[in-house]
Amino acid sequence: MKNKRFRLLTGFAVLVGSTAAFFAGCSGSKKGAAGKFPFGQVEIQALSGSACTAPSYIAREMGFFEEEGVDVTLVSGDFETSKLGLATGRFPVVNGDFQFFPSAAQGLDIKLISGLHQGCIQVLAPPGSDIRTAKDLAGKRIGIDEIGGSPMAVTSVLLANHGIDSQTGVTWVPFPREILPTIADNGKEVDAVALWDPWGPLAVRRGYTVICDIGVDSLFAGKYCCFIFASGRQLRENPELIKALLKAYRKASEWIAAHPEETAKIVTEKGYVSSPDTALIAQLLISYKYHARHDHSNKLQAKADALYFSHELKKTGFLPAGLDPEQFVEDLYVDVLGDEPLDGNHTESGNAATTALHNRKEE
């Protein structure tokens, strides 16, 4: 009986020990994952099919998010999804532009933390149209992807600077992004369209007339069209996470500046952009003028461009008539990194990532 009891106790001890070892192993795995991703897993809305969200794709594909300790999943969604995600903290950051300014003015808990790149929207008229200039848009129906979105904001600034009331002088007609590029072909639904890249340049190839290209139009040229916005909640609760993500985006931007053709190849082969034309995508990426290196001047430009567009959007009614643009931008912009230096190894890490990517393709 005593021996039987001893065997039972011994077996129980072995079972407890094995179970403890199992959970210790699981704990060790979690610790290992936490060691690789100290900031855990986050979602970032970036799967739009447009070329201007390339930094999100490259930061993911080239391992820059991983280098900064963040396990990032890219998801799709629209402008309203972005706003809700930022407000709740589901999305710590998003790649957006001055379409977020009205929401911020209305109290949306977001902060502008960096400029990203220049021009990526065109306002176009279909073949055979008598619309040739911005003034010709008066009284016309303009197709956009969503009310309050960036193409609408860009076109509103264009209209306001050519004496057209953007709220009463035209009719805005929203369409799903997948059908918008061709909705003006027959001239029945709309008279003009405002399109993201690459859909704008692709429409031009089909005979569309460029009314405004924000990459070269004097109202927009040389200024950021896209910024990085952070969730105010995440910035307060997880400031180091926001810093890590911004560093990853800077690495991605600098890598794109140095490797536009390779970037185009990656984003087209992976299906991130809605065009298989790598030459076109490379050309667009070069035109966006990504920074070869980030320094203090980039911060100054981000604030200056945010202020410029705050004044312009105030003209259109997108921002309230009583808004003080200077105070608005002062409250909106946050210098997340301050005087913190960059690592100085972006090119090396990018080259290592490129080599790894090529090796995987060959296997």
Q: What general form does the structure show?
A: globular
Helix content: 40-55%
Q: Could you give the count of β-strands?
A: 10
Rounded to an integer in angstroms, the radius of gyration calculated over CA atoms is 25 Å
Helix-strand makeup class: alpha/beta
Estimated share of beta-strand residues: 15-25%
Report, as a whole number of angstroms, the end-to-end distance: 62 Å
Largest sheet: 5 strands, mixed
The helix/strand series, from N terminus to C terminus, equals HEHHEHEHEEEHEHEHEEHHHHHHH
Q: Round the mean pLDDT to the nearest integer and report it.
A: 85
Describe this structure in words.
By secondary structure, this protein is of the alpha/beta class. The chain contains 15 helices and ten strands. The N terminus and C terminus are likely disordered.
Per-chain topology:
Blueprint: H1 2-36, E1 41-45, H2 54-61, H3 64-67, E2 71-75, H4 79-88, E3 93-97, H5 101-105, E4 110-118, E5 121-125, E6 141-144, H6 150-160, E7 171-174, H7 180-183, E8 192-196, H8 199-205, E9 209-213, E10 224-231, H9 232-237, H10 239-258, H11 260-269, H12 278-287, H13 296-316, H14 325-332, H15 346-362
Parallel strand pairs: 1-2, 6-7, 6-8
Antiparallel strand pairs: 3-10, 4-10, 5-8, 5-9
Helix pairs in contact: 2-10, 6-13, 10-11, 11-12, 13-14
